[in-house]
UniProtKB/TrEMBL annotation:
GO terms for biological process: DNA integration; DNA recombination. The keyword DNA-binding applies. This is Site-specific recombinase XerD. It comes from the Bacteria. The keyword DNA-binding applies.
Length: 377
């Protein structure tokens, strides 16, 4: 069966190291050339896809598809819409009763990735036609209009992949301060700090894992100190603003708990990362998956149904409400644009969904940044 691997630091296709490029190998450990060629194009050529996390997502989707091809003895370059529809239906309704169906958003994401691969193959002459077709569909009347709806010439219709399934986007679900207190009540210092960084800055799992000591300000003279983060979703550096009290507690962790871990690893001649902020007991940087698993276990233990990403939603909703209040006395302030910058969103429409949360969820209308900070003290 196919295997999925990722390039190491020694991979230097153009003379410089490129880490994390997905590679698909067949059962004889040979490169699956069309898949690897497209993944290399995505990672090294295509200017819009610079995030290793996106590369991983594409690689995992193509890996799953290639395993299906091999299991059914299909030819990758001669499959049609029927085979891909069967693959989709198998994800919706797994034949094994013990296997859970995948979320519709995950299914659609995989189908879109496979479609991108085949469209690229058709464009480069590897295949004559793609197994995907598209059609125009009317947008739901319940969907809120976009920011540029007044100049939209599409007539309320959108071009979509015919093989994707209907999926209703759920509104983000922020956590109440009381729920956050329950989750962090039994956490050790490091894990609690991770939660504090997430809920007071909106930082993602991968950004938490990528925090570096050298980028943390050592003096907190201002109410909000800027911290540059490089390991972002889109690969573009941005700035977050943790509160001074959080930075003080973080430096206390560095001097005490983290320093003990580093000394133990040095005494054992074990490998450590001298610049990663949050380390495991083995002296290795916490990975994004470890961050998510840590939080999920704590939330489950506290009886709170939540994932780590809920902390980002919580920050966004509370910050938007705070900015809306500030705009009442500072008319030049645009709450949505300010939140877009703080969240690191490339598209304002992504940020705008939090307007709907504030407008529809009466339980969080009075929530603010102060409420969040109080939950962590």
């Amino acid at each position: 069966m196919a295997e999925l691997l990722f390039s190491a630091e020694t991979f230097r296709p153009d003379g410089s190291s490129v880490l994390g490029v997905p590679m698909l190998l067949d059962a004889k450990m040979r490169l699956i050339e069309p898949a690897c060629a497209w993944l290399m194009h995505v990672a090294l050529v295509r200017g819009r896809t610079r995030s290793p996390e996106t590369w991983r997502t594409y690689g995992e989707a193509l890996y799953d598809w290639w395993q299906t091809i091999e299991a059914n003895d299909w030819r990758w370059d001669s499959v049609g819409s029927g085979e891909i529809a069967a693959y989709r239906d198998n994800m919706l309704h797994p034949p094994d009763d013990d296997e859970k169906p995948l979320a519709r958003s995950t299914i659609n994401g995989r189908l879109r990735t496979i479609a991108r691969f085949y469209h690229w193959c058709a464009g480069t002459g590897l295949i004559d036609r793609t197994p995907f077709t598209a059609s125009d569909v009317a947008l739901s009347r319940s969907r809120p209009p976009g920011f540029f709806a007044h100049i939209d010439a599409s007539g309320g219709r959108e071009r979509v992949n015919e093989l994707t399934v209907r999926h209703v986007t759920m509104l983000p679900r922020p956590l109440a301060p009381s729920a956050i207190r329950r989750i962090i009540a039994e956490m050790p210092v490091r894990d609690r700090l991770v939660v504090e960084w997430a809920v007071t800055t909106g930082i993602r799992r991968m950004e938490i894992a990528g925090l570096k000591l050298r980028l943390l300000p050592k003096a907190c003279a201002e109410p909000m100190m800027p911290v540059r983060i490089d390991a972002t979703k889109g690969g573009k550096a941005r700035v977050i603003y943790p509160p001074p009290t959080l930075l003080d507690r973080t430096w206390a962790y560095v001097r005490e708990e983290r320093a003990v871990t580093v000394r133990k690893m040095q005494a054992r001649a074990g490998p450590t990362d001298p610049d990663a902020l949050f380390l495991t007991v083995r002296g290795q940087p916490m990975t994004p998956r470890r961050v998510g698993a840590m939080f999920k276990a704590a939330a489950d233990g506290a009886g709170v149904p939540a994932t780590f990403h809920a902390l980002r939603h919580t920050f966004a909703v509370a910050m938007l409400r705070f900015l809306q209040r500030e705009a009442q006395t500072h008319p030049d302030l645009n709450p949505l644009l300010a939140l877009q910058v703080l969240m690191g969103h490339a598209d304002l429409a992504t940020t705008a969904i939090y307007l709907r949360v504030v407008a529809t969820d009466l339980s969080i209308i009075e929530s603010s940044v102060d409420d969040l900070y109080a939950a962590l003290l």
